[in-house]
Structure formats: C-alpha cells, structure tokens
C-alpha cells in the first residue's frame, strides 16, 4: 500500500481526488492538511465523504506530512506550493503538484505571469510535465511531477496531433475557452457569487491569462515547433466542465474523416482520449477522466471542439494517472467506473 497525503484538502479538486483515491486498491490516505481551526473531520468539510473515510484535517508541516506519507498530492495555491514541495522531497516524499508552480521551465516567465519570484527555480527544468498522453519518460524516477491545468490539458490535447503532423500553422491559433464556475476554486470571490455569475456569461483575463505561456511551452516542446496562441477564457454559469473551440490555420486541404483518423492514430492506446464523430458537450465527459475531441471545417477554416471535466481530467483524474505511472500501476487504476 502507498501511504498518501493531500495538502490543501478543503477544495473542490481535493474532494474529487479523495473520491478517486478511496477506490484505489493500492492507496491508504494517511494525512490531509488544512489551516482550519480545530482539526475538523474531513467529512464535515466535505459532507459527501460521510461514512467513507475517518480522518481529520490537520495543520501539518511538510516535514510532518513526509513522515507519514510516501506520496503527497499538493493542492495548494501557487507560491504556497513551491514553499512546501522542497521540504516534502527532502523528507523522502514524492509529490504530484496540482498548482502552477512547476509547470513553466523558465523562472523569469513564471515571475512575469504570476508576479512572484520562484523560490525553487533550480527544479523547474527537470520536473516532468504530467500529461501522460504526450509521454511518460522520467515519471517512474521523478520525485516531483507538475500536474497540468484544466484549460491547458484541453487545449494541448486538442492541438498536439495537428501540430505534430504538420496539419496546421503553429502560430496565430485562436483558443476560445469556456469553464464552469468550479474552475475558480472553492474560496469565495465576488465574481463567482451566485448572484454575480448566474444568468451571465463573460470573458476574463483577456490577453493575460496565465495558462497561455503553459500551452505554448508544452506544445512547442511536444512538436518541435515554436507555437503561438491567443487564449481567451470565459466563465459559464454551470458547476463543472470545459469546452474549447479552437481555430487553427490548415497547411493544406484534408477532409474531416482523414484528420480524425490522424487523431485516432496519435492517441492509439491512450485510454482516456475519445476521438468522436459527434460534436462533444461538457455533459458527455462530466464526472469522468475522459477527454473528447472532434473537428469540423467551415469555408476552409478548421474548427477543433474539445471538452473535459475540469475537476477530474483537468485536475484530480490526471493527477491519479501520474501517480499510477510513478508507482508502476496500471494507468487506469481507480479511474474507470
């Protein structure tokens, strides 16, 4: 059994992660952390866990977590995560980090987009990016894996086969992305209050969203081309799900069926990618670890439509995929229900 800890256990992603890990035959959850006073029972923080797990949230130091755990899932905000991760690793605990702190390789780029100097910059260049569909080299030995973001996973998986096969221009790609409100986290914010976001639809962080350099970096690394995207996210008044409508420029003419066949070949043997003929909707992948994608053309313009559950395939589910690969388990363990 692998002893597992969750740092920052009160959020939506942590809840989904715990639900998945409770199904995992090789996992025992031995520590969950929170700064809430009084060490509340985890089931009082997440009532849906009542009767399923008997453990309390504790305000533990990373060193204390490392003493109890073999692997830690770090569900802390950016900056807080980079402060905890080195202590976890020094204590002999391997880490899957769900924050953005280790996704970018360049500390200067991190500071530019996140407004904070990176305190563990030496680890950036050697930390694998945890999107198993693009390869898992180094995962088994890595002390740390950087879990991708939800918007980034959707965009990267949608574009990688096209770029790798030279079907589209690597620059000028427009990503029109929409997410449910849970993507903003559980901490109350004015713009995600019910009366603010219900019956409303709006863009945000236009021209400055932090996922843009992550998308460009990973696609450039995966395809050997300098990739440039215009990424615009929108908040949709629904609980969960992401839909990306993407407009890349084709390098030549190919029918939809041939393009979809290239997707299927690229993702052959990848159990959580579904290349579909229909237009996918967020309900199709909700509460699952599946990523759905298809293409259409209009007046010679390629349109890629892709969606996933932002809390599972976009966060907790892919984190467990990474955990499974790190520990030599079947990648699908606990993820197909």
Description:
The protein has 2 domains: 2-127, NAD(P)-binding Rossmann-like Domain (Rossmann fold), CATH 3.40.50; 150-310, Dihydrodipicolinate Reductase, domain 2 (2-Layer Sandwich). 31% of the residues lie in helices and 20% in strands. It has 11 helices and 13 strands. A hairpin with a 2-residue loop joins strand 12 (291-298) and strand 13.
Instruction: Name the CATH superfamily classification of the largest domain.
Output: Dihydrodipicolinate Reductase, domain 2
Specify the CATH class of the largest domain: Alpha Beta
The CATH architecture of the largest domain is 2-Layer Sandwich
Give the SSE order as H and E letters: EHEHEHEHEHEHEHEHEEHEHEEH
CATH topology of the largest domain: Dihydrodipicolinate Reductase, domain 2
Q: How would you write the strand order of the largest sheet?
A: 8-9-7-10-13-12-11
Q: How many DSSP-defined strands?
A: 13
Residue fraction in strands: 15-25%
Alpha-beta classification = alpha/beta
The helix fraction, in percent, is 25-40%
Q: Identify the overall geometry.
A: globular
How many helices? The count is 11
Biggest sheet overview: 7 strands, mixed
Low-confidence stretches: none
State mean pLDDT (0 to 100 scale): 95
Tally of structural domains: 2
Distance between the termini: 21 Å
CA radius of gyration: 19 Å
Jot down its keywords.
Dihydrodipicolinate Reductase, domain 2, seven-stranded mixed beta sheet, 337 residues, six-stranded parallel beta sheet, 2 domains, alpha/beta
TL;DR?
The protein has 337 residues and is α/β, with parallel strands linked by helices.
